[in-house]
Design goal:
Length: about 160
Amino acid sequence: MNDRAEARPACWKWPLPTAEPGPGPEAGTGQDDLTAEAAEDLREILADDPEERDRALLVAWQGGRCAICNRRRELVDDHDHATGLLRGLLCSSCNTIEGRSTQPIFVRYRERPPTAILQLRIRYWNMYTLSYAEPSTPPITAASAQEALDRLVIPAADETV
Ligand SMILES: [Zn+2]
């Protein structure tokens, strides 16, 4: 019982990546398989596109592990419907439960998911609509604030008589 109340998402226990990318847990089987040319192409793509770089960092940091249960399984993108941004990579089991669960481990995960820990910003790509997810609550801008204020203006007294 206490274990469940105290449960922390697995990603809270993972060491933060170091500034210099070092050999990962599977060193010798990953990057080394790339040809020098392919590795150079990858570096260029990542340098040109901050979002691709952020995604590559997230994938590398998670290392195939679910951010909640730590199991090495096929992972899916989990995103925040309010922002349209990725939270992290989850196994399909955790992803299914996460959306509805009020268990502490899932609440904690939503409060501080991998993208928050690593300070990454990655839009969620919806493979069914072939577009990025839109935030369900659009950000407040100066223009939208003014529009909201304009709607609040009460008609002058002579207009209502
Ligand atoms: Zn999981």
